[in-house]
Amino acid sequence: MMYNNLLQAIGNTPLVQVKFDCQGTIYAKLEYLNPGGSVKDRSALFMIEQAEKSGMLKPGGTLIDASSGNQGIATAMIGALKGYKVIITTAEKFSKEKINTIKAYGAEVVMCPTTDLIDDPNSYHSKALQLHAATPNSFMPNQYYNPQNALAHYSLLGPEIWQQTNGKITHFFAGAGTTGTVSGVGRFLKEQNPDIKVYAVDSVNSYRATNGNPKPYILESFGMDFDTPVYNPHVIDEILTVSDDDGIAMLGNLAQRHGLLVGPSSGAVACAMMQKVTALKRRDLAVMIFGDSGRAYLTKGFYQETHKSEIIMPARTESMGTVELP
Ligand SMILES: Cc1ncc(COP(=O)(O)O)c(C=O)c1O
């Protein structure tokens, strides 16, 4: 492929079979191969270009958003290319690698304390709102509350998965933070075939999973920590929750047995898929979103626990009714 512009290289990521020992066939959508390294390249570009079209974002403007890292990285990359100043608010708990990546693109990072609730006045989300209000000619994509976030994935990622699987997809699993990915892709897939099962993957300790009494959790880049209008319950069959221990164990398994060095949300997605694996039949085809790379979390020590992960998911030993894609 040849492109005249880096942004044209966003999307069209590969769908790769992961040889888990189970009925049905499991594919991972390698979103970490986007230019900015995550699924968030798609939604950030979509929201920024919608704002340009509507006149909300003008040349010389400033992009401001709150992010656990990947939305910030995508916004910083796009801002660098398009000539916008970028300010990203984030929290101390998120990986240093992601925060340094945002800075490497030339963006300003505003570090905020880690808070349990997103609407805490000290949270990184509240800080972004304050900065946006105080900065003339600024645009805040506001991924947590902007319906365009889900529309991005409805318009781009959903159709891509449908085409790549020739419409054979039967199960879809995605990490849920803003819920833009699972709500947008879920809506598209349900419109094509209402029988497709759509699963959102959350942390057991999130705001939503604990009915508003969140506990700290180590895994990052996903977790339903606020009520958001982006969430579309009509297209999500079930929210599956994953503990830190299970997610971390799966990360070791994926790296050391499958060559997939992926981030925490991908480990959680694979664990959630495991919760449903006995329901998969020979002709079923599951797609898991692997949203970012493990390289952004190496300092967190997530990748050392193969012994535990052996129990969770052994590698496939023989071909079991594989659904082949062209
Ligand atoms: C790697 C990764 N996976 C999953 C998610 C959750 O996606 P969404 O915000 O669309 O629910 C994010 C969000 O930042 C992410 O960075």
Question: Can you characterise this structure?
Answer:
The chain is α/β, with parallel strands linked by helices and 326 residues long. It has 2 domains: 192 residues, Rossmann fold, CATH 3.40.50.1100; 100 residues, 3-Layer(aba) Sandwich (Rossmann fold). Helix content is 34%, strand content 16%. The strands form 2 sheets. It has a 6-stranded mixed sheet with strand order 1-2-10-7-8-9, with helices on both faces. A 4-stranded parallel sheet has the order 5-4-3-6, sandwiched between helices. β4, α3 and β5 form a beta-alpha-beta unit. α5 packs across α6. The longest helix is centred in the middle third of the chain and has 17 residues. The model has no long low-confidence stretch (mean pLDDT 92). The site of pyridoxal-5'-phosphate has 19 residues, from α2 and α6.
Summarize the SSE layout with pairings:
Blueprint: E1 15-17, E2 25-30, H1 40-54, E3 62-66, H2 70-82, E4 85-91, H3 96-104, E5 108-112, H4 124-134, E6 138-139, H5 148-164, E7 171-175, H6 180-192, E8 197-203, E9 238-242, H7 244-258, H8 264-275, E10 285-290, H9 306-312
Parallel strand pairs: 2-10, 3-4, 3-6, 4-5, 7-8, 7-10, 8-9
Antiparallel strand pairs: 1-2
Helix pairs in contact: 1-2, 1-5, 2-3, 5-6, 7-8, 7-9
Bound molecules: pyridoxal-5'-phosphate.
How many angstroms separate the termini?
19 Å
The topology string of helices and strands comes to EEHEHEHEHEHEHEEHHEH
CATH topology name of the largest domain:
Rossmann fold
How helical, in percent, are the residues?
25-40%
* Total separate domains: 2
